[in-house]
């Protein structure tokens, strides 16, 4: 049975060589994030992921969370103990504000740690992940009183948090939210309504759960401008910090799902018995605006879920391919004996595809994390703005493309296993099922793509998109000018893909204004084109750095040669898809709309 091993050498390479941890550690407030600290943290996290979370993953899938008759929810055996250990080790507050008990480390350093949790046990990590979102909302706009009352216990993990946006009629379209919040005249509100699909809305880890809830006050304007954000604790908290009465919020049921079985997905009822007490966060009617600021990080994290799951699916596939003996591979001098399937060229193709996608999207995500740190901590305002524009542009790509690619990579993981991939005991099928949710929650791929063509590309007439394409073109030109044949091949292919990207940008910007339906029909191919080329960009940079170190006799030569080989495979076997995507973007939108709704 395969055991998860954190890819520490690869993570360190991306952190230090591509994402610039050294530079991030020089930003004010991040001085503690030295390479030594980073190495120690990654090693500790790797142990916890391998020893505690990975063995529980399959238990979580088989047993799942259950709602009991008394309305409580029981998580699978071992999960509560693992959560307590996770909190004792301080993992929840790794990048949280030290004023509330966090360790204040940069997002860049928290990112590989998060990747390890996603690889080893996605369903477990959803609880800390949602708690982090709730912490951020309160920290962002909550009053000092709200912060003092809730944040220390949330940052330590003593209480968990949830995000309550979705209602039966309000999913992608949050303008349709109907939950009501009625002011009580004493600064508090009473909430009435139903929320669905609430991750860890109820569980047995902690004595209290702090729900962040979108609702409308009685005089609120219709649509998105009338939504406010509220803190609604499961158990009310007294002024001295002790727990008071049970609030009027309860879990009505939990869903039966395709994957992430250990994560309870709850239907929540607010106010069935007189109203759930809530406290407004920031100003009334600005809830969605606050939510969008937070969503950047939540969407980034879901993109990392994609990377984490496919790293694990890849490791499992490699272990199986080394072990399973079947047939005589063509062209190998294996004599009369059969060989492990890893020797078959088609298995190699699948493993290389999985590896290239994983390494490319890990690199894109870590580079984006570094931009987020710079966007918030760089001393120079112009640099902050530049990094923010880059990070905001990349986030729908990290979320949308990583998770879409996750479908292909986890499916290849099943395929490498042959029939055993379809049988649950190998674990390959669980990754395939678990990965399926990642393109849906925190905004579907369609919603990410609409954001990418609209707010991120057309709004500044393509300026940010063209600037990033320019940076990629520069790397392509540098690679093309190298003496090394692999680097030249990567550079030449990357340059052709940048041309595809530019033609797509040139088409999307005007189409967004004058052919909006065709532009939206091309939005997901546009997002995929960006993900593919951004991945090629970062792998091209990796290859150049690896070649430099090899020439200097520095580092592990096997590792460095593999970086170049993976980048070349990506350039020659995956990047050419950019021309098909560009064609679909610039010519396919109208074709997708050719039938009337009645004709389907
Ligand atoms: C396991 C799980 C956990 C979840 N956890 C949470 C949680 O903790 N908190 C929470 O609030 N919610 C949560 N959700 C809800 C999740 O965020 C929504 O399911 C998601 O946003 C999609 O909304 P929907 O299901 O209503 O689909 P719909 O909005 O009905 O979408 C259906 C289809 O229409 C497409 N579509 C809709 N509008 C557009 C548009 N404008 N342009 C293009 N395409 C469009 C979508 O892309 C999708 O393909 C969770 C869901 C699941 C399944």
For the structure shown, list the relevant keywords:
600 residues, alpha+beta, 8-stranded mixed sheet, 18 helices, 12 strands, 10% strand, globular
Assembly state here? single chain
Q: Secondary-structure element order, as H and E?
A: HHHEEHHHEEEEEEEEEEHHHHHHHHHHHH
Please state roughly what percent of the residues sit in beta strands, choosing from under 5%, 5-15%, 15-25%, 25-35%, 35-45% or over 45%.
Answer: 5-15%
Large-scale geometry: globular
Specify the number of helices.
18
Helix-and-strand structural type: alpha+beta
What's the helix and strand layout?
Elements (H helix, E strand, L loop, with lengths): L7 H11 L2 H4 L10 H29 L2 E2 L5 E2 L4 H10 L18 H35 L2 H12 L4 E5 L15 E4 L5 E11 L9 E7 L12 E6 L1 E3 L5 E4 L2 E6 L10 E6 L5 E6 L5 H37 L21 H33 L3 H36 L2 H4 L5 H8 L9 H14 L4 H18 L4 H30 L1 H6 L1 H29 L5 H18 L2 H16 L8
Parallel strand pairs: 3-6
Antiparallel strand pairs: 1-2, 4-5, 5-11, 5-12, 6-7, 7-12, 8-9, 10-11
Helix pairs in contact: 1-8, 3-5, 5-6, 5-7, 5-8, 7-8, 7-9, 7-11, 8-9, 8-16, 8-17, 9-11, 9-12, 9-16, 12-14, 12-16, 13-14, 13-16, 14-16, 14-17, 14-18, 16-17, 16-18
């Amino acid at each position: 049975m395969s055991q998860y091993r954190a890819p520490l050498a690869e993570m360190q390479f991306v952190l230090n060589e591509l994402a610039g941890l050294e530079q991030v550690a020089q930003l004010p407030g991040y001085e503690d994030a030295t390479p030594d600290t980073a190495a120690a943290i990654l090693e500790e996290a790797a142990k916890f992921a391998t020893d505690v979370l990975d063995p529980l993953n399959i238990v979580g899938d088989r047993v799942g969370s259950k709602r009991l008759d008394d309305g409580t929810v029981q998580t699978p055996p071992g999960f509560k103990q693992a959560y307590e250990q996770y909190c004792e080790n301080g993992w929840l507050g790794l990048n949280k504000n030290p004023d509330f008990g966090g360790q204040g480390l940069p997002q860049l350093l928290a990112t590989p740690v998060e990747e390890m949790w996603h690889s080893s046990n996605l369903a477990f990590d959803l609880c800390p992940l949602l708690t982090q979102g709730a912490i951020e909302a309160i920290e962002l706009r909550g009053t000092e009183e709200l912060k003092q009352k809730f944040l220390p216990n949330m940052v330590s993990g003593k209480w968990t948090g949830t995000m309550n946006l979705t209602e039966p009629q309000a999913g992608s379209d949050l303008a349709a939210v109907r939950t009501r919040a009625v002011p009580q005249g004493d600064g508090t509100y009473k909430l009435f309504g139903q929320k669905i699909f609430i991750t860890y809305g109820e569980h047995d880890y902690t004595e209290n759960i702090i729900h962040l809830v979108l609702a409308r006050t009685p005089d609120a304007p219709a649509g998105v401008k009338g939504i406010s954000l509220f803190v609604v604790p499961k158990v009310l908290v007294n002024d001295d910090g002790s727990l008071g009465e049970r609030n009027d919020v309860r879990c009505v049921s939990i869903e039966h799902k395709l994957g992430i079985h250990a994560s309870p997905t709850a239907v929540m009822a607010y106010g069935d018995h007189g109203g759930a007490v809530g406290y407004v966060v920031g100003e009334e009617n600005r809830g969605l605006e606050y939510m969008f600021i937070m969503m950047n990080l939540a969407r980034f994290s879901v993109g990392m879920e994609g990377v984490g799951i496919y790293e694990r699916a890849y490791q499992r596939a490699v272990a199986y391919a080394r072990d399973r003996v079947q047939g005589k591979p063509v062209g190998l001098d294996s004599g009369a004996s059969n060989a492990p399937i890893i020797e078959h060229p088609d298995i190699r193709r699948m493993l290389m595809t999985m590896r290239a996608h994983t390494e490319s999207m890990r690199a894109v995500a870590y580079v984006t994390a570094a931009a987020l740190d710079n966007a918030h901590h760089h001393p120079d305002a112009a640099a902050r703005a530049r990094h923010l524009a880059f990070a905001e542009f990349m986030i729908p790509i990290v979320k949308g493309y990583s998770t879409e690619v996750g479908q292909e990579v986890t499916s290849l993981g099943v395929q490498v296993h042959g029939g055993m991939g379809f049988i649950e005991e190998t674990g390959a099928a669980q990754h395939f099922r678990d990965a399926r949710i990642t393109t849906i929650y925190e905004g579907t791929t369609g919603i990410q793509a609409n954001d990418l063509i609209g707010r991120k590309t057309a709004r500044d007439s393509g300026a940010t998109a063209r600037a990033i394409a320019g940076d990629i073109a520069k790397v392509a030109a540098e690679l093309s000018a190298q003496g090394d044949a692999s680097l030249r091949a990567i550079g030449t292919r990357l340059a052709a893909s940048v041309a595809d990207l530019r033609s797509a940008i040139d088409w999307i910007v005007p189409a967004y204004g004058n052919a909006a339906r065709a532009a939206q029909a091309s939005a997901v191919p546009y997002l995929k084109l960006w993900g593919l080329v951004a991945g090629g960009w970062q792998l091209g940079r990796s290859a150049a750095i690896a070649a430099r170190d090899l020439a200097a006799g520095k580092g592990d030569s096997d590792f460095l040669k593999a970086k170049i080989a993976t980048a070349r495979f990506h350039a020659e076997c995956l990047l050419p898809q950019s021309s098909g995507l560009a064609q679909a973007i610039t010519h396919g939108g109208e074709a997708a709309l050719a039938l009337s709704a009645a004709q389907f």
